[in-house]
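Appendix B. Chain record.
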Amino acid sequence: MKTRILLADDHAILRDGIRGILEATPGFEVVAEASDGMEAIAALEKNQFDVAILDINMPKLNGLDTLKHFKSVAPKLPVLILSMYPEEQYAVRMLKAGASGYLTKEAASNQLIQAINKVIIGGRYVSPELAEQLAFGLTKTEADYPHELLSDREYQVLIMIASGKSVSEIAEELFVSVKTISTYRSRILEKMDLTNNAQITHYVIKNDLLT
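Structure tokens predicted for this chain:
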């Protein structure tokens, strides 16, 4: 019996490439594809999957919110995050939200196959570097890392501000209003005891959250 896979990514060319890798592997079958989070949820309602592969930055519903929905309706479904974002930025949050593994899109194709094989038997897949960070992080508290006080969306906005994006650019990318992003920014400054974007950027770089 083949491993049934759901593949969700908003870039058709990347989906084609990943699909090619997966279907060239004996025993793997991409049953459904989705270009955004809402399509991924619709696919989950119609099909049975052995593993789902999600991008983070998707329109309509991002990968994090899609993951949370998946875990609420299909808690045993392994979800592997395959993202352009470095591990330092999102991996820990995705794992805490229920992801079974995290890979960057720069990973080799054999790593993707290894990751799928590991998560479908109940394991977790992370790089050795991330595993070390996770072990080290167990000794830290929210007081040590103020960004841990942020919600998932606030954290996402934090990273985007530090990347040099304007409020309007962030709003457009996340499909929300400028007012909403301004509210997130205000919460970030308050929770982290910062006063401006320059301090946000300094904090993110100092703590190696931006690669």
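Further analysis of this model is presented in Appendix C.
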